[in-house]
Amino acid sequence: MQENHENLGFVRIGNQPPVTSLTLNRIAKWEAQAVKTKQYTPYIKLKRTPTVGKGSKIFNPESDDSHETLSIMETRLLRYLDFLPNVISIKTQYPLLPIKTTLEIADAMRVKHPSYTPKGKHIRPFLKVNQAVVMTTDYLIDYSDEDGVFKQCAIALKGVNEDGLFSEKQKRDVNIRNKLNIEVEFCRIDGLGWRLVTSAMQCFEEDFARNLLEAEVRSELEIDEVLLVKVEEAFKHRFREMPRACFTALLSSIALQLNHSTGKIRGSFWKLIWQKRLPVDISKEIIFNRPLPIGEKIWNWQ
């Protein structure tokens, strides 16, 4: 980067928006925290974004800092990634640093780098200019492929309409595509895989999302492993012997057999679903007075 003395110490690359001390200080603060805690923390925080109640802070077993999701879609995808057995680690709101790289990529592509104009009484007047913002990818995951090889993949999550566009406004659609192209090139240079996930993906369908949420909630229940094994064996036996029995009948039958409440058996069922120990297709609707959608399905990130 070369300092631009005409802009009060701002730095620029080509015709891209300048980088100011606001951005540099925030990057330095984020990096210092990572060094101090030796843990990952999301670069974008809920309190800094207008999510209108649709974002979530979700427990992250790898860090003292929670996962930060900024929309219902992001929360659903995080739950799905957490469900996949070959996903080892998940980072949300991962910054594409150094910012110099994304600026150079944007300049080479002759597109505008994402930017913003800071507001607020605490911002000094000369800093209230349109300036480059650090780009982030929605997720960075570590996973093992089908051969057991460790890999990393950045994931961009976008909603699409029926026409396959990211926005009904042409200018916004173009801006989103430009940002994605910058992200793709950054990942190529950095040696990362990259995947675009859209709202058309199965994990966003209502039946699947509802079932997976139920399984995740019940996964926290304290149920003895001995009982879980017995419930697992009982369900599998009835799947073979009574494949058309409704869910309620199965719960009652197994509860009577094991001398436990139907609530305990239902909780065990969903905990087993989260652990991928029952051959039930959770992409389909599960209703108490209907047969369960029996069917093996391997869930993996590929």
Main sheet makeup: 4 strands, mixed
Number of helices: 8
Instruction: Based on Cα principal axes, name the global outline.
Output: elongated
Radius of gyration, whole Å: 24 Å
The overall pLDDT, averaged over residues, is: 90
Separation of the first and last Cα atoms: 38 Å
The helix/strand series, from N terminus to C terminus, equals: EEHEEHEHEEEEHEHHHH
Which consecutive residue ranges, at least 5 long each, have pLDDT under 50? Answer: 1-7
Helix percentage range: 25-40%
Structural class: alpha+beta
Strand content: 15-25%
Total DSSP E strands: 10
Strand order of the largest sheet: 5-8-9-10
Report on this structure:
- The protein has helices at 21-37, 72-83, 99-109, 170-190, 206-218, 225-241, 247-258, 262-274; strands spanning 2-3, 11-12, 56-58, 67-69, 87-95, 115-116, 131-132, 136-144, 150-158, 193-198.
- It is an alpha+beta fold and 302 residues long.
- The strands form four sheets. It has a four-stranded mixed sheet with strand order 5-8-9-10, with helices on both faces. It has a two-stranded antiparallel sheet with strand order 1-2.
- The longest helix is centred in the middle third of the chain and has 21 residues, at 170-190.
- The radius of gyration is 24 Å and the shape is elongated.
- The model is unreliable at 1-7 (pLDDT under 50).
Gist of the model:
This protein has 302 residues and is α+β, with helices and mostly antiparallel strands.
